[in-house]
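Give me structure tokens for this 348-residue protein.
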Amino acid sequence: MPALSSLLFRCLRFFLFLLPAETSHEWGLKGLALLQGWHLGFLLRPKIPALPVQALGLSFPNPVGLAAGLDKNADYIDALGALGFGFIEVGTVTPKPQAGNPKPRLFRLRRERAIINRMGFNNLGVEHLVKNLERRRYCGIVGVNIGKNLTTEVQDAAQDYLACLRAVYKVADYVVVNLSSPNTPGLRSLQFGEPLAQLLRTLQDERETLRQATGRRVPLLLKVAPDLSEAEARGIARTVAAEGFDGLIATNTTLSRAGVEHSPHGNEAGGLSGAPLTGAATAVLHQLWDANAGRLPLIGVGGIMQGSDAAAKAEAGASLVQIYSGFIYRGPALIRDCVRALQTLRHS
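Here you go.
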């Protein structure tokens, strides 16, 4: 079945890549849902070895997850969950629905195995996402990535994050605070100093209130940018630990265009992901690990295009990894390859 699943994915990708990037994204997800509805989702799923991991107080069947951004509204969580991921992160979701930036806003750089997006947190709002998660059949671990609405001033961002946290708390296994998207003006300024400490403290206090009300403690994580100096990365790591957050995700997309300068779409505005991000994302990951001597769980994401990239994230300090752009280019086979590489690393 692995050969069949890879062949089927390559055929589907060939036709989808003939379409504009955002159109193929939407049709690809709808196609997955259709296969799942016909009970044919197994055709795309390779054989993935079991590799249980304990992290964040949760039990993962394997350490390879889907990064936020692919399924912003949790509309396709059952179909994606059938592909063998160890966990799925949905979002970024905001309190109110918003359309995001004007199209076109998603670009494939095929030669560089990269993607540039300036989606702008387009989503149907947190109520829609919660309803989808309440009726999901997927029984695996689900993280929810939360953000602020474009119309909310940066100084008032805490209210949006609080609203999302309260709404998703009952349906999320962990919650990610996204302060690192390059496509929401001013958002990244909240990653530093006292603004970061205040926001994390506010969310931590609310989490404690929700814990007492529900009897369950949902881990909180912060997702950071790759465009950080070593001093900035270390400062963020110390603040996250001091304010009682449970972990970090490194990294989001980059504003750098190193490696894609001569691509037809290389100068498009937005965040760059995929192979050109690999080294920078792994370097920030290691800086975060080193700043806390490995005490905080880390999720490594950014430029995982093959199994060895996942292993490099683990060697840099990641307990778990996530894929996105590599999944677009390679499909479910990348999940298998990453799990195998991490399995080999564990037994070496």
